[in-house]
Amino acid sequence: MDSLAEYTSTGPRNRRPRRTAVRAVTAGAVVLAVAAGGAYAAGLGPFARDTGPDPAAGKQARAFLADWAAGRLPSAAARTTSPGAAGRVLDSFTAGLEITEPALKAEAEAATEAADGTVTVPFTARMPVAGLGTWTYESKLPLRQQSDGTWKVAWKLSVVHPRLSGTEKFRLEREETKPPEVIDRQGTALSGDELPSLAPLMARLGGNGTDSGARGAIHLVDRATGDVERTEARFGARTVRDKGPVRTTLHAGWQSAAEQALATHAEGKNAALVALRIDDGEILAVANSPASGFNRALSGTYAPGSTWKIVTSSALLLKDAVKPDDVVDCPQYLTVGKRFQNVELSEHPGATFHKDFTESCNTAFISLRDRLYDGELRDVARKYFGVGQEWHVGAPTYDGSVPAPKDETEKAASMIGQGRVQANPLLMASVTATAVSGTFHQPSLTDGNEDTTATTPLPRRVVTRLRAMLRATVTDGTANVLADLPGEIGAKTGTAEVSDAQDNNGWLVAHRGNVAVACVVEEGVTGGGSAGPIVYSLLAAASGDPE
Fold first, then answer.
1. Nearest 5°: CA angle at 92, between 90 and 93?
2. What's the DSSP call for residue 225?
3. For residues 167 and 185, what is the distance between their CA atoms, to the nearest angstrom?
């Protein structure tokens, strides 16, 4: 019952007349996060308040960025005043610079409207350059109202980047270097040829003074002469201090099993998986499908869907706002500004909170939102699970975000891991490990990483209840795909909405022995159906606790 299957606006807004003075939207506006891998939140609250620019302009800006980030370039181009030119530039810009899955964030609170009616929406672009790193810059979307009343992006080259012009362009230059030798926790050499998910990761390992591997730069060059006018971004270390092998926390057996699980069961979809040790956070396996390009497992930004109910449950149990045996009704629908529903319109009248968890009832969890203050999920996630703190793992990571909700609708969405809650498999594997042990351990991929996190252990009574509900989700609930595996496995499924144009992402987190696992499958529809077989395959192949 993970899916947030209907999460759309309750009705159109009346378009307001153009403004004649420049105004900045001061607060309460939507921030659109288009995640690597396509995860984003849309339509959450107003784009602007009554004193700001026409909300229809903001809606078009968000739609343009969403299409661009998701690779729907013809659709993005059609939202501009010059579709032909825009389509050619958007296609050549990302391809020529080897950019994979851009992440675009519109800063709607800074939108302005000029005297001529043009609305300008600033945005931040995070462009992952294959095998090198992320190029981050800021630009602006100018939007103009057309004669038919619609808004379109006023196309010019600077829409893509403020320095892109008819006389200057960007060029990617790589400096090929030999990646460092990498060994696993037992001293076994790891090969990117045999374990393809490790090939792009090996060049990014740090913390022990070795060469980072691949190096390169993005230059602004003269279109006519090719001369470099300035360097926009540089990637990779310039010096080598130690030629010794990089010792990792990885386990060759678990890594191989993870790679095989994705190769066999991802069915051509983008997917990612992380396995780590519960007692110390050491990462045993990091796998991505496809193996090359963006590291979804460590740096992806996804709505975690119902796997986030582990954190929501913790917040409720910490303050005794609900007990497992309390009756918390599970109706088909619940309207909080927008209509929320359960997958296939399922319902469980008179269900206990324990059953709501095992059946992943969205409406039941949303009905409990008033028992948490507005920023409580953020505070619990940070204090007990380390979410949103800066992690030093030994490779680049995204460490999660749980913004305080702007309104009741967004608060309802955050209860079930939607809205602006952002995570990835690394973070959700860590959340699972913390939930079942009670103690957060900063994940690590290499030795000797700085740890600046500060967390508080979960009370034992909360851990006991979480473990019982996770176990029941396998024996009697939505994660029964794992039920016939040996060991006392606990798990939670998740299904996270992305957009009207894309199928839901599928999630599954699990723990057995001293290992916690998290897997996401983009457009996997359901967690049990897509991520379930992958996690099953991993746990079936990699038995026992790795030393």
1. 65
2. T
3. 52
Tokens at residue 452, please?
């600046």
Contact 508, 307 (CB under 8 A): yes
- The C-alpha atoms of residue 207 and residue 244 are separated, in whole angstroms, by 13
DSSP three-state, residue 173: strand
Close Cβ partners of 370 (under 8 Å, ≥ 6 residues apart): none
Can you tell me which residue has the tokens 């703190």? 389
Task: Confirm if 270 and 289 have CB atoms less than 8 A apart.
Answer: yes
Report the distance separating Cα 417 and Cα 313, nearest Å: 12
Which stretch of 4-18, 83-97, 183-197, 300-314 has the lowest confidence by average pLDDT? 4-18
Average pLDDT rounded to a whole number, residues 28-43: 34
- Token output for 393: 């793992």
Cα gap 252→198, rounded to integer Å: 11
Q: How far apart are CA 4 and CA 309, in angstroms?
A: 13
Among 169, 200, 134, which Cα is nearest to 398's?
Answer: 134
- The mean per-residue pLDDT over the stretch 61-81 comes to 93
Identify which has the larger pLDDT, 157 or 175.
Answer: 157
Task: Judge contact between 515 and 275, C-beta under 8 A.
Answer: yes
pTM of the model: 0.69
Q: Which residues have C-beta within 8 Å of that of residue 112, sequence separation ≥ 6?
A: 22, 23, 24, 53, 119, 120
User: Which domains does the chain possess?
Assistant: 31-163 (3.10.450.100), 177-247 (no CATH), 252-541 (3.40.710.10)
Tokens standing for residue 305: 């869907």
**Token duo for residue 501:** 């144009």
Q: In whole angstroms, give the CA distance from residue 431 to residue 443.
A: 11
What's the pLDDT at 202? 82
- pLDDT per residue over 510-535, tens digit each? 999 999 999 999 999 999 999 999 99
- R_g (Cα) of the chain, nearest Å: 24
The residue type found at 72 is: R
Do the Cβ atoms of 32 and 105 come closer than 8 Å? yes
* Residues composing the chain: 547
Residue 200 has pLDDT above 90, yes or no: no
99-112 residue pLDDT tens: 888 999 887 667 89
Model pLDDT, residue 94: 82
| DSSP secondary structure code for residue 180 in this structure | P
Give the pLDDT band of residue 498 (cuts 50, 70, 90). Answer: confident
